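Thanks for the sequence, V.! I ran VWFA domain-containing protein right away. Repeating your input here for the record:
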Amino acid sequence: MAANIKVKVSGSLYLPWILVKEKEKLNTKFTAMISVKAPPSVHSDALIPIHLVVVVDVWKGTIDDLLKTMKFISGVFNEDADKDQICVVDACEFKNKKLTIIDSWITHARENQINYVPESGTDLRLLLGRAVEILDNKSDGAKRAGFILLLSDGGSQQKFDDSSMNELFKVLGSKYPVHIFDLDSRHDPEMLHCIAKRSRGTYSSIDNSNNNNKLMEAVAICLGGLKSVVAINTRVRMSVKRDDTNPDSESNISSHFKIKIQPGDHDISGSKEGFLVGDGVLYAGEVKDLIVDINFSTICISSRTRSATLTATVEYEDSSSSLKQAAKCILRLLVTGTHNVPAMTAYKEWEQLLPNSMVLQRMIMLEVLEKLIDATTTKTAKKQMTGKKITTGEELRSMWRNLKKDGEYLKKVVAKNEENSDLLDLQWIDNDIEAMASCLDEKGLGLGHIYSWVSRYQMQRATTTGLPQPTKTPFLTLDMEKMVDRAKNYELPIQEQEDAGETGRKNDAPQLKAVSEEEPLEGDKCKRALELFKQIESRLTWYRKCPPGSSDGLVSIEKIIQQEIYEVGSLVSTPSI
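Predicted structure:
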């Protein structure tokens, strides 16, 4: 990366310093927010190539919506066929273990109106295990970041006990994030959300009504991110060093500091290599905020102000080389005694001011997330007095009211707001909680919407929640926004619209938009011909890369290329006079 498109790191303290009474031994802490910021949208040469496996577990008659979405995904990847790769694992066709190219899958799905549910149900261990196997065994040896997309309506999934879930996570590991799109909010989505959480992926809940546009737009948000990866294996290392190395024996702060990162983005793993930031992947324009507690003890603070230095270093890999890149920031931690007159004066003036609102906002969000996870997870709910998960809107509203009374930081904000100090605007959280509660009241739907909301703010990454959307979707990057606009304006090629209207796994599948019979203009013909030439070139690239044993895929691609060549011929042929 050029110097101006490097990953950056910055820090902010919740409170500027800590005031300690004279000769008081105290265990206390600083709270800081470390922000890791990816560079904005960059040239494609600076992006990290990806390998995507789409796992299809759809059984309930959404084939036209699914086909259109898969065709959209195919078009996006065909633009960079020499760089990125994509494969499909289909629950319907799992016994056929040949590597499936997405265009071959689309052709096969159109020609074969498969609509069955296995008696034993879908075993996600097998499907996701196959996806991991594909990503592990890259045929060309190229370095690509691996991801899994799981499209599922939950219609035939086996219910896993704790032992089965452990087997699943053992198969899945934590190498490849699984981004899940739940197409049916009528089932209990806890297992799907759990898979996304453990793999450090995201979970999106798609509203069943008008599924066509929402499915494609939800996938487009994810694709916009995956196609703009600028950093992988992103980790933050932190250290604290006392500035005064030889303090007065009766006037110091301890030299031992314990650093703890609050688990906002799932189970944060720390090691000698540092703390993994989310899934370790940064999309262009993303910002990840980590709340850090620095615990220490004070011993006999004198009139001197003591200080220490927190150094946060972010390390990552980009497309420029195999070597790790790094950036760092430094924060000063100050501790003073109450009999330090200048410090006391400054402290009293500071007390009239507000704490850092950006840090406070993230700390409050962590409180809300923790409570929602506790209330909607079976294992955790069993430990609570209720012994069950939240299932009604009133239970959720009651939980929110209690949290505003009892939350360590939330209750302070509520109290300050009641004093008209406007410490933080909580109205948007009130609105989202009420929207979730309304979904729960509507025939018991809504757990999926809660999980997707939690996933969004845990991972600090845009998801589709199924809730009324704000004017600006949180965490939506410029590349995601462009991809969503592309999805909204997407239309299938004319011949494929006609084919799609004749096929489907369900006879009552929704029909696609009718095709105009008006003869295209010459300019449009030229544009379409150029598009076809580009598609043919991409398919030929795939054809050359097709691994051994994929004869079905080769035949399908040959048929598609022949059809496209025929269409080009009809467009450029000289009209008879």
